[in-house]
Amino acid sequence: MSISRREFLRMMGFAGAAGMMPSSVFAAAKQPADLYEVPKFGNVSLLHITDTHAQLNPIYFREPNVNLGIGYAFNKAPHLVGDNLLKHFGVTPGTIESHAFSYLDFDSAAGKFGKVGGFAHLKTLVQQIRDDRGPGNSLLMDGGDTWQGSGTAYWTRGQDMVGACNRLGVDVMTGHWEFTYLDKEVIDNVNAFKGDFVAQNVLVRDEALFDYNFADFEGFDEDSGNAFKPYVMKQVGGARVAVIGQAFPYTPIANPQRFIPDWTFGIQDDLMQGVVDMVRENEKPDVVVVLSHNGMDVDLKMASRVSGIDVIFGGHTHDGMPAPTVVKNSGGKTLVTNAGSNGKFLGVMDLDVKGGKVRDFRYRLLPVFSNMLPADKAMQAYIDEVRAPYAKQLNEELAVAEETLYRRGNFNGTFDQVICDALTTVNDAQISLSPGFRWGTSVLPGQKITMDNVMDQTCITYPETYRREMKGSEIKAILEDVCDNLFNKDPYYQQGGDMVRVGGLDYVCEPGAGFGKRITDMVLNDGTKVEANKSYTVSGWATVGSKAPGEPIWDVVAKYLRDQKTVKINKLNTPKLVGVKDNPGLADYPY
Q1: What single DSSP character describes residue 257?
Q2: CA nearest 411: which of 507, 493, 296?
Q3: pTM score
């Protein structure tokens, strides 16, 4: 029997992953030409990154072991974890791909395969694909959540990431956390961005149109009220490609509206259908793409309701999906993808476009392993330059991790617990509340926890903490509200993110129950029952409505870590779950 070089390399890779050969031999066997071999197909190549959250350097990132699908989402992507996810997508366990797409054997696999992401390594991969496709045959799109998530992004107000994306060659982007800077800063960054910023669902409020501060901004259209260009036309591989932007629809609810008072958002299917129809009629495109930051469940519903879209390149929910979901609608079919987060993946969709329509496609979601892709020298020099003024602060060693610290998952991760414990300890509170953010990198056992790591977990433009008295009924109302946001049966009522993290508090959660009935049996860490009319001291951060009075969360966490010296989670405040024991979006959960 004869096998190809690619088959041989893949077999060697499987053997190495199974411990059948020395790791040094395995490292030599798994050449980039194997993992990153993406044969040409068709004439249009669409490249996609999303939710990089300002991670310029390579990082560790653990995928979730809890991503519950309730009702319509049961046993469907993206609500699959671990072995269930691998089986669904045909990924072989124990391989480098298995490590990329799942949490399985994370500690050992991370030690074996190394860090992921990093813009210098991503640049090398992007350039490799673009060179292979040839000039004018590819388009690089960024789904947003790019300017936020690190200390340098916070201190430069996102400008470091604008520079990185310009050097990466991003052609089109949309946004979400981009809108958590002041509106003037958003406009300045969009002006500095060399590509096109598109967002058809961001409009200027009627009352602001008469005296709009950014009336001279190129993307503003006074007649339609669009604050930014709704779409852009691109010539790719001899085809006309329309890219329509869909910014995160719940930005003023999930994040402070006070930063962007003149802009409205929303899902607005009718508005999207109108833009698609107008573009189809007036621009005569061969391909219609939506660059979305809806979240995958919302994208799936939108794809079923809006016709005329060929592909939705989605973000927001950080789901690294190895293959698109095909959604039927009244006009035909729409492909829906989601390309993970933190610079960990590059989506590559090759289209065969002929006669004014898409005939066929091929898709690969490529993991960006930094030790398998050489760093682009120019990009690395830029990264070193923008980080240099902050290096001393970022490199401060605060403590040592005795176990893996991570965030991603529907309920408390171990780094979330560190934040919650810091709030209760430093602010002398009985209970702590921390937002269910999905961004935040991972720290391996034995690794030094630096200020850089803390900023990766906490860096937002409204980081102030609080300490206040709250009744038990108020705490339950908060938990119920966030839980409904996460598990509502209608994805259009889901605003993204995961369950609010808690410290000092345990409770029972039934995700499939109705509103107001999911949270029961709240008790303090010592077993004392939380009473509805009794007051408790609560500490938290990231208030959306108004600025909290306390110091930034990263200072609270840093103070806690300096005192702890080493970090091991003594108690993880995860809820007891009811009615989900056989859910394929749940694995290795402490019932």
Answers
A1: G
A2: 507
A3: 0.94
